[in-house]
Design goal:
Helices cover 30% and strands 20% of the residues. By secondary structure, the protein is an alpha/beta fold. The strands form five sheets. The chain has a six-stranded mixed beta sheet with strand order 8-9-10-11-13-12, with helices on both faces. It has a five-stranded mixed beta sheet with strand order 2-6-22-23-24, covered by helices on one side.
Length: 540
């Protein structure tokens, strides 16, 4: 097979040992690493059709993989007004006022990234944004993407004028008189109003997705574990793949929600393995709870408002049954579980299904924001992967516990925030991700956050739980070797080994010796997917 790509004058970084390989060059054939050697040996493999790139001493790592993201829904969501930089209500009102002035008459205003901390001790409700949104149909998604603030006009257009009942733990929050406050908790409630808003065309959605994926490749990502397949997501991936416009290797886990009957579950199982050259459907995404910030997590003791006391599934034993069915069918699962009770129930369900460690079906728990000591060791014992998003701790909580998340939990549970170190030391396989669009997707920022645990907008602030930080090498492993393991691909991906996929990230310097606070600014010079450059800096 001809050599399609040759990389010369490289420093090849082993993500297991943290040392550079003796070889200084590699060759790619058929989308795989076909040879490692010195520059002379590898250059000899090139012919007139080979792309030859002199890396001039740049550092090559296995391709970085985001363990948890939402490309399709994120591409649509982030097309609206970005409120993530607003730190107070006045800033939010000013940003909304500017956006309203630019709106056409009757047009909807969409915002995202709204931090509940801006409301301080006030309730999260649309009245706090009056009169800016008076008469304007607006949907403002809070940063956790599990709750939305709808303006009175949006509620009116959607016909939402009181409480509703749902098959999952969702809520149209109402005041004592039964009038909606504007706060909508979880998807089922949010969708009531979202359906009333105009939708982008299919062509617009495809273009936005393609642009987002190109940005991810430019940031050094070669792959991502996509945690939803809503709407026509799979069709969009297939179209981009067929057109040669898919710059990431995407592993998609469709959702299984409360109310899924036996026929629907069978369809999800039969869907496994469907895909194309660079994407495939593998695994099922489930929810055991919501979020701590909006009071829909599942905690062993309610939060300070008496909330977060229930599972997302009205009957958690139905979830347990479904995990058993999927496990017996050989289908890996990824369950959103933030609160301690939710995490414990997921582990109990996996244990009851018969999981016995790393050699069987690889189930995962996503987020794991607060857990007690007795939960830690069970991840390794059951072979359950711990999928963590450290930048959520960095940017949405505070070291002094004055943030909404910490105040809701109280000191004891807030002190158990994002226990990456403890899970790693207990033997769990820890995978890192962004959960984009909840947090930014650049993987160097995710790795940096796992190391410094400080707010990315102000690195002079103290870290939240510095004892839970990972090392530089562990952070790299969590986005290469461990991500491959979580996907059952450890024999074909995640290392710079002959026969492994030629998914590569090339950096200007060594990420292991670059300070954590400087890592997000380390230039990404080249990204290679399946042996094909998807991003190339002008300096190469």
């Amino acid at each position: 097979m001809p050599t399609s790509l040759v990389l010369l004058s490289a420093r090849l970084l082993d993500p297991v040992t943290g040392r550079f390989l003796e070889e200084t060059a590699l060759a790619v054939s058929g989308g795989r690493i076909s040879a490692l050697g010195d520059d002379r040996q590898i250059r000899a493999r090139a012919d007139s059709s080979t792309t030859v790139i002199d890396l001039k001493g740049a550092v090559v790592t296995p391709g970085l993989v985001d363990g948890h993201l939402h490309p399709v829904t994120g591409a649509e969501l982030t097309h609206g007004l970005d409120l993530s930089g607003c730190t107070g209500l006045d800033e939010v009102r000013e940003a909304l006022a500017r956006a309203v002035r630019a709106l056409a008459p009757g047009a909807w205003l969409h915002g995202w990234g709204l931090d509940p901390n801006v409301f301080g001790d006030r309730p999260v409700e649309s009245a706090a944004l009056s009169p800016v949104l008076d008469g304007v149909p607006a949907l403002l998604q809070l940063f956790d993407a599990h709750s939305t603030l709808a303006s009175p006009r949006a509620l009116e257009l959607a016909g939402v004028d009181g409480p509703r009942t749902f098959a999952q733990a969702a809520e149209v929050v109402c005041d004592d008189a039964g009038r909606p406050t504007g706060l909508l908790l979880e998807d089922a409630a949010c969708e009531l109003v979202e359906r009333a808003a105009p939708r982008p065309t299919r062509a617009e959605r495809r273009a936005r997705l393609a642009a987002v994926l190109r940005g991810m490749a430019a940031a050094g990502l070669t792959g991502g574990h996509a945690m939803d397949a809503d709407g026509d997501s799979l069709t969009l991936y297939a179209e981009l793949d067929a057109a040669g416009e898919l710059p990431l290797r995407v592993r998609v886990a469709p959702r299984c929600q409360p109310g899924t009957d036996a026929d629907a579950l069978r369809a999800l199982i039969e869907q496994q393995g469907a895909g194309g050259r660079l994407w495939r459907t593998e695994g099922i995404k489930l929810f055991m709870d919501g979020t701590i910030d909006n009071g829909t997590a599942w905690l062993e003791r309610p939060d300070c408002h008496g909330e977060s006391a229930h599972a997302f599934w009205p009957d958690p034993e139905v979830y347990t049954h479904i995990i058993g069915e999927l496990h017996r069918a050989g289908v890996p699962t990824a369950t959103h579980a933030i609160g301690d009770a939710a995490v414990r129930h997921v582990l109990d369900a996996v244990e009851k299904a018969g999981a016995t460690g790393s050699h069987g079906v690889r189930h995962r728990v996503e987020h794991i924001e607060t857990v007690p000591d007795d939960t830690l060791r069970r991840f390794a014992e059951l072979g359950v992967v711990a999928s963590m998003q450290p930048t959520h701790c960095c940017d949405f909580t505070r070291a002094d516990h004055t943030d909404n998340w910490s105040r809701r939990l109280g000191e004891e549970r807030a002190a158990r925030a994002w226990r990456c170190r403890d899970l790693w030391d207990s033997g769990a396989t820890v995978v890192l991700g962004s959960d984009w669009p909840i947090a930014p997707y650049p993987p160097l920022g995710v790795m940096a956050g796992a190391r410094h645990r400080r707010p990315s907008r102000d690195l002079t602030q103290p870290p939240h739980g510095p004892e839970q930080a990972l090392t530089a090498l562990e952070s790299l492993r969590a986005m290469t070797v461990n991500a491959a393991y979580a996907a059952g691909e450890e024999h074909t991906a995640g290392q710079l080994t002959i026969g492994h996929r030629a998914d590569l990230t090339v950096l200007a310097d060594n990420p292991l010796t670059t300070a954590a606070t400087e890592l997000p600014d380390l230039p990404v010079l080249l990204t290679v997917l399946d042996g094909r450059p998807t991003h190339r800096d002008a300096s190469l």
